[in-house]
Amino acid sequence: MEPLKWTDKLAIGHSIIDDHHQKLLELINGVLSQKPGAPVIIGTLIELIDYTRYHFLEEEKIMLNVGYPEINAHRKSHEKLTAEVIKIYNNYIENALSISNEQLFKFLSRWLIDHIFNKDHLIKPYL
Ligand SMILES: [Fe+2]
Predict the structure, then answer these.
(1) Which secondary-structure segment (H or E) carries 83?
(2) Is 127 in contact with 24 (CB distance < 8 Å)?
(3) CA distance 28 to 30
(4) Other CB atoms within 10 A of residue 4 CB
(5) CA of 59 to the centre of ligand 1 (A)
(6) How far is the CA of 31 from the centre of ligand 1 (A)?
(7) What is 15-126's CATH superfamily?
(8) What's the pLDDT tens digit per position in 76-120?
(9) What are the two backbone dihedrals, phi and then psi, of residue 119, each rounded to the nearest 5 degrees?
(10) Mapping DSSP to helix (H, G, I), strand (E, B) and coil, where does residue 52 land?
(11) What is the pLDDT of residue 22?
Protein backbone atom coordinates (compact mmCIF):
# COMPACT_ATOMS: atom_id res chain seq x y z
CA MET A 1 0.00 0.00 0.00
CA GLU A 2 1.33 3.41 -0.99
CA PRO A 3 1.85 6.02 1.72
CA LEU A 4 -0.08 9.26 1.51
CA LYS A 5 1.63 12.00 -0.45
CA TRP A 6 1.20 15.71 0.13
CA THR A 7 0.00 17.49 -2.99
CA ASP A 8 -1.11 21.02 -3.84
CA LYS A 9 -4.67 19.73 -4.06
CA LEU A 10 -4.63 19.13 -0.30
CA ALA A 11 -3.28 22.59 0.50
CA ILE A 12 -5.78 25.16 1.69
CA GLY A 13 -3.29 28.00 1.41
CA HIS A 14 -2.68 28.75 5.08
CA SER A 15 0.88 27.87 6.12
CA ILE A 16 0.04 26.80 9.70
CA ILE A 17 -2.93 24.65 8.71
CA ASP A 18 -1.07 23.12 5.78
CA ASP A 19 1.96 22.34 7.99
CA HIS A 20 -0.28 20.67 10.54
CA HIS A 21 -2.02 18.63 7.88
CA GLN A 22 1.36 17.46 6.57
CA LYS A 23 2.38 16.40 10.07
CA LEU A 24 -0.89 14.43 10.44
CA LEU A 25 -0.24 12.79 7.11
CA GLU A 26 3.27 11.76 8.22
CA LEU A 27 1.92 10.30 11.46
CA ILE A 28 -0.64 8.25 9.53
CA ASN A 29 2.05 7.04 7.11
CA GLY A 30 4.05 5.88 10.14
CA VAL A 31 1.48 3.13 10.71
CA LEU A 32 2.36 1.43 7.42
CA SER A 33 6.00 0.75 8.18
CA GLN A 34 5.43 -1.12 11.45
CA LYS A 35 4.57 -4.66 12.52
CA PRO A 36 0.90 -5.16 13.51
CA GLY A 37 0.48 -4.68 17.25
CA ALA A 38 3.92 -3.11 17.61
CA PRO A 39 4.19 -0.72 20.58
CA VAL A 40 5.37 1.92 18.16
CA ILE A 41 1.94 1.92 16.47
CA ILE A 42 0.27 2.49 19.83
CA GLY A 43 2.70 5.36 20.40
CA THR A 44 1.89 6.72 16.96
CA LEU A 45 -1.84 6.59 17.68
CA ILE A 46 -1.33 8.43 20.98
CA GLU A 47 0.76 11.05 19.18
CA LEU A 48 -1.90 11.30 16.48
CA ILE A 49 -4.64 11.89 19.09
CA ASP A 50 -2.55 14.52 20.90
CA TYR A 51 -1.52 16.28 17.73
CA THR A 52 -5.06 16.16 16.34
CA ARG A 53 -6.40 17.89 19.45
CA TYR A 54 -3.72 20.56 19.22
CA HIS A 55 -4.30 21.03 15.49
CA PHE A 56 -8.08 21.31 15.80
CA LEU A 57 -7.80 23.97 18.50
CA GLU A 58 -5.32 25.95 16.41
CA GLU A 59 -7.50 25.61 13.32
CA GLU A 60 -10.53 26.79 15.30
CA LYS A 61 -8.58 29.85 16.49
CA ILE A 62 -7.75 30.68 12.88
CA MET A 63 -11.40 30.25 11.84
CA LEU A 64 -12.44 32.54 14.67
CA ASN A 65 -9.87 35.16 13.66
CA VAL A 66 -11.02 35.24 10.04
CA GLY A 67 -14.71 35.24 11.00
CA TYR A 68 -15.48 31.92 9.32
CA PRO A 69 -19.30 31.71 9.54
CA GLU A 70 -19.55 27.90 9.72
CA ILE A 71 -17.22 27.57 12.69
CA ASN A 72 -19.77 25.83 14.91
CA ALA A 73 -20.52 23.11 12.37
CA HIS A 74 -16.80 22.73 11.74
CA ARG A 75 -16.13 22.41 15.46
CA LYS A 76 -18.73 19.64 15.66
CA SER A 77 -16.96 17.85 12.84
CA HIS A 78 -13.71 18.10 14.82
CA GLU A 79 -15.42 16.65 17.89
CA LYS A 80 -16.70 13.74 15.82
CA LEU A 81 -13.26 13.11 14.30
CA THR A 82 -11.61 13.20 17.73
CA ALA A 83 -14.13 10.68 19.06
CA GLU A 84 -13.51 8.46 16.03
CA VAL A 85 -9.74 8.41 16.43
CA ILE A 86 -10.07 7.67 20.16
CA LYS A 87 -12.42 4.82 19.32
CA ILE A 88 -9.99 3.33 16.80
CA TYR A 89 -7.22 3.65 19.40
CA ASN A 90 -9.32 1.80 21.97
CA ASN A 91 -10.18 -0.91 19.45
CA TYR A 92 -6.56 -1.19 18.52
CA ILE A 93 -5.20 -1.65 22.02
CA GLU A 94 -7.95 -4.13 22.88
CA ASN A 95 -7.56 -6.24 19.77
CA ALA A 96 -4.49 -5.10 17.88
CA LEU A 97 -3.89 -8.25 15.88
CA SER A 98 -7.37 -8.33 14.37
CA ILE A 99 -6.79 -4.97 12.69
CA SER A 100 -4.18 -5.06 9.96
CA ASN A 101 -1.88 -2.12 9.44
CA GLU A 102 -3.51 -1.63 6.06
CA GLN A 103 -7.00 -1.43 7.58
CA LEU A 104 -5.79 1.03 10.18
CA PHE A 105 -3.98 3.07 7.55
CA LYS A 106 -7.02 3.07 5.23
CA PHE A 107 -9.32 4.22 8.01
CA LEU A 108 -6.99 7.01 9.15
CA SER A 109 -6.26 8.14 5.59
CA ARG A 110 -9.95 8.53 4.83
CA TRP A 111 -10.51 10.12 8.23
CA LEU A 112 -7.98 12.86 7.42
CA ILE A 113 -8.31 13.34 3.67
CA ASP A 114 -12.13 13.47 3.62
CA HIS A 115 -12.12 16.16 6.29
CA ILE A 116 -9.52 18.25 4.47
CA PHE A 117 -11.38 18.05 1.16
CA ASN A 118 -14.95 18.29 2.45
CA LYS A 119 -14.59 20.70 5.38
CA ASP A 120 -11.23 22.46 5.54
CA HIS A 121 -11.38 23.50 1.91
CA LEU A 122 -14.54 25.48 2.72
CA ILE A 123 -12.42 27.82 4.88
CA LYS A 124 -10.19 28.66 1.93
CA PRO A 125 -12.19 31.66 0.61
CA TYR A 126 -12.02 33.31 4.05
CA LEU A 127 -8.25 33.09 4.47
FE1 LIG B 1 -10.79 21.08 10.20
Answers:
(1) helix 71-94
(2) no
(3) 5
(4) 19
(5) 6
(6) 22
(7) Hemerythrin-like (1.20.120.50)
(8) 999 999 999 999 999 988 887 778 889 999 999 999 999 999 999
(9) -120, -50
(10) helix
(11) 98
